[in-house]
Amino acid sequence: MASSVFFTHSHYSSSPSSSLFRLHRQLFLGPTSLRFSSSHVAPVAAMTTDSSAKVIDGKAVAKQIRDEITAEVSRMRESIGVIPGLAVILVGDRKDSATYVRNKKKACESVGINSLEANLPEDSTEEEVLNYISGYNDDPSVHGILVQLPLPSHMNEQNILNAVRIEKDVDGFHPLNIGRLAMRGRDPLFVPCTPKGCIELLHRYDVSIKGKRAVVIGRSNIVGMPAALLLQREDATVSVVHSRTSNPEEVTRQADIIIAAVGQPNMVRENWIKPGAVIIDVGINPVEDPNSTRGYKLVGDVCYEEAIKVASAVTPVPGGVGPMTIAMLLQNTLISAKRVHNFE
């Protein structure tokens, strides 16, 4: 079984419908600084039991975080008259990207963060996009900048993303932020939102990380690689399983903590999982389901029905990591505004 498992190098693969897949990736896995709050969800009360495993409720944790952000935004506005601002640049008319931008705007409004948006046509030049970034870089009311991906094929994605000032890189993808994340004794200004959300779930459910064996499945720049770096910073012993790993199930079965982010529906089966392991499933994959009115259902990279029989705790799909991603984006934007204005 091991040697025949197929991985993709990208964050996710599309099945059964690439456009459908992209929509759900954007809806739930948006493009986090280090820990923002030390409060926790009460481990027993907040986890619901499904079979033998406890279900890690990302939706409830994300709501708690948004409530904390709302209170801090209000305190900042009342104390110094500053409202955090997030700017999003959308190029083209892709429906999935437009849907995701709308969701970000609604999330900002729900916590009191100002939301700015620049919509450019598909045939815009790279220079035009860079001009918008430059304007937002210089705008003191903007504390975070997002360039919605993917960009049109005629644009150099790396050049555009690198143009965002590191102090406003709330996506956490700037090479200097990733480099600082990788170095001992250095702190990034921002951490990518999805992996930050994974670690925050572990923190808030009081899952011990220090000294534990952790396996990250997938090595994308968006999730896998920064998730492995974050676990290492928490003093876990980390292995990364990827497309060239021999016997991935044997490596994974050694893990006390599994973060699965490879984009293969139900790839991690019961025999991959060490009894009592904690599983954070980042995957959101639409698969055909004739019993659903939509014709499909969403499943993770981990076979949930099997995992709950073996694991001690597991995130559901949907309702696990997905809601955490946008919550971490809002958190990063607030952190940026606080940093700029030296607001404690």
Q: Could you describe the 3D structure shown?
A:
This protein is an alpha/beta fold and 344 residues long. It contains 12 helices and 12 strands. The strands form 3 sheets. It has a 7-stranded mixed β-sheet with strand order 1-2-12-9-8-6-7, sandwiched between helices. Strands 4-3-5 form a 3-stranded parallel β-sheet, with helices on both faces. It is globular and about 55 Å long. Residues 1-6, 8-39 and 42-46 have low confidence and may be disordered.
List the helices and strands and how they pair.
Blueprint lengths: L17 H11 L14 H4 L1 E3 L2 E3 L2 H23 L4 E7 L3 H17 L2 E7 L5 H13 L5 E4 L9 H6 L12 H8 L10 H12 L8 E5 L6 H10 L3 E5 L6 H5 L4 E4 L17 E4 L3 E4 L7 E4 L4 H7 L2 E2 L7 H19 L4
Parallel strand pairs: 2-12, 3-4, 3-5, 6-7, 6-8, 8-9, 9-12
Antiparallel strand pairs: 1-2, 10-11
Question: Concise description?
Answer:
The protein has 344 residues and is an alpha/beta fold. It is built from 12 helices and 12 strands.
Search tags:
344 residues; alpha/beta; 7-stranded mixed beta sheet; 3-stranded parallel beta sheet; 12 helices; 39% helix; globular; disordered N terminus
> How far from one another are the termini?
53 Å
Tell me roughly what share of residues is in helical segments: 25-40%
Instruction: Report low-confidence residues grouped into runs of 5 or more.
Output: 1-6, 8-39, 42-46
Shape: globular
Q: How many separate helices?
A: 12
**What's the total count of β strands?**
12
Order of strands in the sheet with the most strands?
1-2-12-9-8-6-7
Pattern of helices and strands:
HHEEHEHEHEHHHEHEHEEEEHEH
The share of residues in extended strands comes to: 15-25%
Gyration radius over CA: 20 Å
Main beta-sheet strand count, sense and barrel state: 7 strands, mixed
Average pLDDT confidence is 88
Q: Which structural class best describes the helix and strand composition?
A: alpha/beta
Oligomer: single chain
